[in-house]
Amino acid sequence: MQKLKIYNTLSRQKEEFEPITPGYVGMYVCGPTVYNNVHLGNVRTFLTFDILYRYLTNIGYKVRYVRNITDVGHLVGDGDEGEDKIGKMAKLEKIEPMEIVQRYTNDFHHVLEQFNFLPPNIEPSATGHMVEQIEAVKDLIDKGLAYESNGSVYFDINKYNGEGNNYGKLSGRILEDLLNETRELDGQAEKRNPLDFAIWKKAAPEHIMQWPSPWGMGFPGWHLECTCMSTKYLGKQFDIHGGGMDLKFPHHECEIAQGVGLTGQDPVKYWMHSNMLTVNGQKMSKSLGNSFLPAELFAGAHPLLDQAYSPMTVRFFMLQSQYRSTLDFSNDALKAAQKAFRRLLNGFRVSKTLVYSENPEVAIDEKKKTEIEKAIEGFYEALNDDLNTAVALAQMFTMLKYINMLYMNQLQPAALGRETFESLISKFEIFFEKILGLKEEKAQNDEVVLLGMLELYREYKLNQQYEKVDQIRNYFKANNMVIKDLKHRIDWAWEE
Fold this sequence. Notes:
Layout: E1 5-8, E2 13-16, E3 24-29, H1 40-58, E4 62-67, H2 85-93, H3 97-114, H4 130-142, E5 146-149, E6 152-155, H5 157-162, H6 175-181, E7 198-202, E8 218-220, H7 222-234, E9 238-244, H8 248-263, E10 268-274, E11 277-279, E12 282-283, H9 294-299, H10 311-319, E13 327-329, H11 331-351, H12 366-384, H13 389-407, H14 418-435, H15 442-462, H16 466-478, E14 481-485, E15 490-494
Parallel strand pairs: 3-4, 3-9, 9-10, 11-13
Antiparallel strand pairs: 1-2, 5-6, 6-7, 7-8, 11-12, 14-15
Helix pairs in contact: 2-3, 4-7, 7-8, 10-11, 11-13, 11-14, 12-13, 12-14, 13-14, 15-16
């Protein structure tokens, strides 16, 4: 089995991956808060863990991948105050909150399908685990690590640290500095310490999403849901927990505190966080007008975009950067990625046509054979080095060089020997499709071909080459399509 090293945010260094149970991996990734459209930062984070899931599975691990849906408890500013955004939208649109949840959950799934992400093994929701969250609050109160105040329940940071723990160890925050940074907010008077965070919030009468509890009607804190769902499906301690860098504090920091408080041990062995996106060197944000949604990328419908870019082009573009590095979007970078992806895609397509043939007159080319074998091993070494997809892609382009030489008859298969030839073809296809999750976007390609045929049809008509005109018409008809000779244009339609 390959030896994977990953950067553990907790230890701040690369560590050799050793799962708690040999051969099995438990992985939890913080999913979307379903009150908004999926943005590209989300996509990059989920791409990181899609690659990790694919790679771990490919090298022989049995993986349980859990990714949650946050459909309650996510408040304004991710703090303890404010109105639940799902409830707020439900009031404005005069519909059930679960209609809002379902709408954005469907959109989330659709976007990830476009990027060819594998679905998780389990996708739990916060509202579906209310019993577990209430029981966890009770347990933390019984252990003296949480207290009730005016119908809300808060986690006691001073008590937690007083028992030999270190709130802030994941993010590197110092408690005294955090206290100095704390803003005065409504509800702070309820807390023993300004840093104490809500694990259960009392609901105002007008708050739509609320549940009965021993402390009155209310709803769980945002941080609690992940602790309860990860524990339920992966156990008291599991292998990998991840998300974007913005989740390190306070969300993941609070998860550690809750997990230690409930079980007496650190809940996660390896913490992984992906870096942020920039646009033309600036941080991506709505206020700067440089933030765009995946759908805008696919349609080219944004002032900062010169053209549309397909989902696989964007996926490939993101793979060109290691997940912990900042990734900068620009038209030039996207156009270069489009060209590079198409080169790789052409290699993937022609690799399926290559067949080994013996030729005793052709000598083995040891230099080429060795270079191919090094490129294959280099791909694994790159991903073993904390998922360095940028270097892995470079190894694939070395492999592509030899696939193209075979396709152009510049290199005889026999010069590589059967084993190396078959390894080149099979590994290239596995790397492209199974591990990196790239694929041919047939629908768009078919549209381009059809438009090209219509252009030929137009030229043949102008030149009165009617035999060729009929050939194109017959091709369309055989595929249940018709050519429409309109006054202002020539188009096609499905045959009715």
